[in-house]
Specification:
With 155 residues, the protein is of the alpha/beta class. The chain has two domains: 58 residues; 64 residues, Roll (Chitinase A, domain 3), CATH 3.10.50.30. It contains three helices and seven strands. The strands form two sheets. It has a five-stranded mixed sheet with strand order 5-4-3-7-6. The N and C termini lie far apart (71 Å). It comes from Sphingomonas abietis.
């Protein structure tokens, strides 16, 4: 039989399993975000993986490595001191005639449907450094955003 048709096993043909991708840039966190990361690490470390299948155990360990890395690289940021929009700000604004409110948080804490967006999101980047009363360009439109108020996210 030709060597070209010989196969020792299926292991060599499986797709490689890569680590979970880390968001680019610094790992800025609010106090709440750091607490969430610490709770996630504790939950994963406490999980009993003995009954899991090999693939599930590998996935669990990959997820644990991700969260341990996020915990080790976390950079807590103090709440902003004034009404300038920054990481840790709660911002009320109008966009397309609708009044909205968001919190600017870290990547792992972001939940857009709950009004928490990552500081790296386009909307947050457009607002950072602005003050209440300013009108900002967003989405290719001049004066698309009007900042109504800004302050630190309540603890």
């Amino acid at each position: 039989m030709s060597v070209a048709f010989r196969r020792d096993g299926d292991e060599e043909h499986k797709e490689p399993k890569f680590e979970l991708p880390l968001p680019a840039g610094p790992n800025l966190v609010t106090a709440r975000g750091l607490a969430l990361i610490e709770a996630k690490v504790a939950e994963l470390e406490a999980a009993d993986t003995a009954a899991l299948a090999e693939a599930d155990r590998e996935q669990h360990l990959r997820t644990l490595r991700y969260w341990r890395t996020r915990q080790a690289t976390a950079q807590p940021v103090s709440p902003p001191a004034d009404d300038e929009i920054a990481f840790g700000s709660r911002v009320a604004f109008t966009l397309n005639g609708q009044t909205k409110q968001i919190d600017i948080v870290g990547d792992d804490e972001a939940e857009p449907h709950a009004g928490r967006i990552a500081f790296s999101a386009p909307l947050a980047r457009a607002m950072i450094g602005a003050y209440p009363g300013e009108q900002l360009a967003f989405g290719g439109k001049a004066d698309a955003l009007e900042i109504l108020s800004a302050g630190a996210i309540p603890a």
